Amino acid sequence: xxxxxxxxxxTFRRMVPRKQKEALLEQTGLVIWLFGLSGAGKTTIAAGxxxxxxxxxxxxxxxxxxxxxxxxxxxxxxxxxxxxxxxRRVAETAKLHANAxxxxxxxxITPTRNLRSQARTIIGADDYLEVFVAxxxxxxxxxxxKNLYAQAKSGCLTQFxxxxxxxxxxxxxxPPDLTLSTADTSPDDSIRQLxxxxxxxxxxxx
Length: 206
Ligand code: ADP
Description:
Blueprint: H1 18-25, E1 30-35, H2 42-55, E2 60-64, H3 65-69, H4 80-99, E3 103-107, H5 113-123, E4 128-134, H6 137-143, H7 148-154, E5 178-181, H8 187-202
Parallel strand pairs: 1-3, 1-4, 2-3, 4-5
Helix pairs in contact: 2-8, 4-5
């Protein structure tokens, strides 16, 4: 604990309880954490899921890696330490939203097992749905939605995940809650699969 933290007086007990907020919204707070290589389809699936939940009158928050990095985390780069701090802040932010009963979708590369485990620990296993957006590097490179693979190849971009910075797929003994393989599936099918898994956790009566 940092020195300043010992002088804090949290007021959690005076806040409206999470259960009451969930009752108000008629939904359960949950963090749906999408991870995978750049170009794998995280943003596409996250945005599609959010639209489907909105259609069902479910309140959502979408924390997309690039958006967060251009605001809350704009002071962070891509070193190991900064990646760790990036995930810590996103996980803490996601947790705040889930505690308000909001269906919170995170779309972040989250390249290592360690980082994913950190996110799970911060959020709490009961509120954490881990989704691997799986796609082989060659397909991601071919899609190159943001022209990042080309920049990494030409040397304009360093510390790029999958090239000069490692991406660890899930360990066999610690599988994600869901794997969406996007190389040979349409975005609509991937979104439908995720909706089928997430919706019962957000609105058990649905
Ligand atoms: P990321 O957020 O992981 O960097 P994006 O969602 O920005 O990736 O880009 C993924 C690209 O792959 C989009 O152009 C999307 O249309 C395409 N794509 C093809 N199949 C799928 C699928 N099953 N799920 C998601 N995206 C897909």
